[in-house]
Amino acid sequence: MEVGNKNDLELVRNLLKLEKAQEARTLFSQIDPKDSAEYYLVKGSLEQKFQNWGEAMNAFNKVLEMEPDNSEAANNLHLIQNILNFWNPDMFNP
């Protein structure tokens, strides 16, 4: 079986949508790294699911280097930045 084709990346995406993140991670680890926007979009989504924010941001930035108008990558980057910049003053007032 040829690993790393577009169907494998689509399968990883579907597993993520079905909340089967561990299965998605296992399959993704068997895919040969590709220098494509689709590969990095899936990688970013997977890292985001596991809250590996730095890895996710790097992957989405790589997509934007290849495809500056990619709205999925831009939206996910914005979402992560909002998560990382979130500040709740009540957490600091006992």
Could you walk me through the main structural features you see in this protein, from its secondary elements to its overall organization?
With 94 residues, the chain is mostly helical. Helix content is 67%, strand content 0%. The protein is built from five helices and no strands. Helix 3 packs antiparallel against helix 4 (53-66). The radius of gyration is 15 Å and the shape is globular. The N and C termini lie far apart (58 Å). The mean pLDDT is 87.
Termini, distance in Å? 58 Å
Largest sheet: none
Order of helices and strands: HHHHH
Total beta strand runs: 0
The total count of helices amounts to 5
- Structural class based on helices, strands and sheet pairing: mainly alpha
State the low-pLDDT regions, or none: none
Silhouette: globular
User: Residue-averaged pLDDT, rounded?
Assistant: 87
Approximately what portion of the residues adopt beta-strand conformation? Answer: under 5%
Tell me the Rg in angstroms. 15 Å
Helicity range of the residues?
55-70%
Q: What attributes does this structure have?
A:
94 residues, mainly alpha, single chain, 5 helices
State the gist of this model.
This protein is mostly helical. It has helices at 6-17, 21-29, 37-49, 53-66, 71-85. The chain is globular, with a radius of gyration of 15 Å.
